[in-house]
Amino acid sequence: MKKGLSFLLAMSIVAGAGAYFWLQQPQDGDDGSQLVLYGNVDIREAQLAFNASEHIAEIRVQEGDRVSKGQPLARLHTELLEAQLAEAEAAVEVQRQVLARLEAGSRPEEIRKAEAELQAAEAQAKAAHDSYRRVARLLERKLASPQDEEQARSQADAAAAQVKAVQATLALLKAGARKEDIAAGRAQLAAREAALKQARQRFSDASLYAPADGIIRNRILEPGDMAFPQSPVLTLAFLDPVWVRAYLPEPMLGRVRLGATAWITTDSYPDKRYPAWVGYISPTAEFTPKTVQTPELRTRLVYSVRIIACNPEGELRLGMPASVSIELDQVDAGSQPRPCGGS
Q: What is the mean pLDDT of residues 7-20?
């Protein structure tokens, strides 16, 4: 009796193991025109982090929330950044006014004042010159001393020099600022505008936005935690693309082409088929993954494939076991339209 039970138990184990290993391998359809692969649903994920170092002020999403591209997810404290931004904006405005003054040149009132000063200087110079001529004539008649003549000549020369100085000042006012000064002013304005752009970018980096449509998988940090560029705050699972990761045996490599139409089924929704297509075939072979334990299967060469799936209702989840049916030898596989508009 015991021997019979032991025999039946051993046969059950062998049958179960055989069924498991059979399910792990690609299966051909009854007529050999269809290939069935088994794999798991896979998606892309992103570890979202701030591009700044500061304490977290708020996190606006919870695990499982569906988010849209560009949606704000979290924010840092920004008091210091706001002050720096205001300072940079003020510096730019000051330099703009300086450059405007240089480019505008002298005011008309300044030019008219210089013209009046020139007229006054010319009048004084004429009076000094006339005075010198009178003293010179008196000296000829011995009615003035040489010292008087020398003093009058000096006053006349000083008045003439004053006229030249006022003339030069008037010419500078009419010419305006030098082109080198204007160029320097423009360069200074560009430097301050660049500093303002940096301040705005730092302020923008204090907010974390969703890079694409997706679902929040993990909240890694919380308000009050210190955030760094190297420290993820949230994990975002992208909604698109979704694919099944499977392995194509080497003998089937020539019968399955990129773009080939496929269908995906799962145990969770056994009565539902998801349209899909072959989106990737690895260019290099590898041995069967070690999850398949028999020595015969581990030494078989396979190629990793991705079967891109249509998942409009979000029913295909990360890690979900799935079966993929592919019709072999599809002639126009590469030119077929994508079942759900993909490319």
A: 43
Q: Check residue 44 and report its DSSP letter.
A: E
How far CA 336 is from CA of 123, 237, 277, 327, 342, in Å, comes to 97, 29, 9, 13, 11
Question: How do residues 65-99 score in pLDDT, each as one tens digit?
Answer: 999 999 999 999 999 999 999 999 999 999 999 88
Q: Are residues 104 and 179 in the same domain?
A: yes
CA pseudo-torsion sign 149, 152, 156, 161: positive
pLDDT tens digit string along 201-213?
999 999 999 999 9
CB 328 within 8 A of CB 255: yes
Instruction: Return all residues near 121 (Cβ < 8 A) that are at least 6 apart.
Output: 159, 162, 163, 165, 166
Place of tokens 């794999």: 39
CB 302 within 8 A of CB 249: yes
* pTM summary value: 0.61
Is there a single domain that holds both residue 162 and residue 243?
A: no
Q: 3-state SS of the chain: helix, strand, coil percent to 5?
A: 45, 25, 30
Residues 177 and 246 in one domain: no
89, 196: one domain: yes
